Amino acid sequence: MRYAFPCNIVRDEEEQKATGREAYVVTFPDVYGANTGGWSWQEALEMAEDCLAVALGGYVKAGEDIPAPGPLADGQVVIAVPLIVAAKLTLYTAMREQDMTDAHLAARLELDDDSVRKLLNPNRFSHISQVERALKALGRSLVVEDTVAV
Predict the structure, then answer these.
(1) CA 122, 53, 29, 145: dihedral to nearest 10 degrees?
(2) N or C: which end of the chain has fewer CB within 10 A?
(3) Angle at which helices 102-109 and 113-120 pack, to 10 degrees?
(4) Domain assignment of residue 8, yes or no
(5) For every one of its 150 residues, what pLDDT tens digit does the chain have, with 9 covering 90 and above?
(6) 49: Cβ–Cβ under 8 A, 6 or more apart, which residues?
């Protein structure tokens, strides 16, 4: 799955009127709770990536399926999660599809359960090779796609 989601970035007219400052509001229609903003277009884009990663991490923490990104509508921008977050979400999804517990994967990888929980947590540092090893143990792999940045 591609962990790149359409988002709406719109100028916050109320903030402009109230403070005179430029501001933008960011929302992701496909990801519940993924809302943020920025004082400039560039800051809104940067905040959007972080917001998306945190919101999708919430699905992992809650034990829920990761939503699929919808089609890109006019005026929307596609935001992708960082590579390591995409890898961790892929691992999480593969485990759910195979009904695999943390303990089962830990045994397969000869790790402790806590190490596997860290591999699944998008907010924890993991080396990409560790996540790739876990994916390989599940019969999965990653493909990296190059796109033009916004």
Answers:
(1) -100
(2) N
(3) 110
(4) yes
(5) 889 999 999 999 998 889 889 999 999 999 999 999 999 999 999 999 999 999 999 999 999 999 999 999 999 999 999 999 999 999 999 999 999 999 999 999 999 999 999 999 988 999 999 999 999 999 999 988 887 766
(6) 79, 80, 81, 82
Give this prediction's pTM. 0.89
Helix 128-137 / helix 102-109 crossing angle, nearest 10 deg: 100
Question: Domain range spanning residue 92?
Answer: 83-137
Task: State phi, psi for 98 to the nearest 5 degrees.
Answer: -100, 10
CATH label of the domain that carries residue 28: 3.30.160.250
Question: Does 28 share its domain with 58?
Answer: yes
The verdict on 72 and 130 lying in the same domain is: no
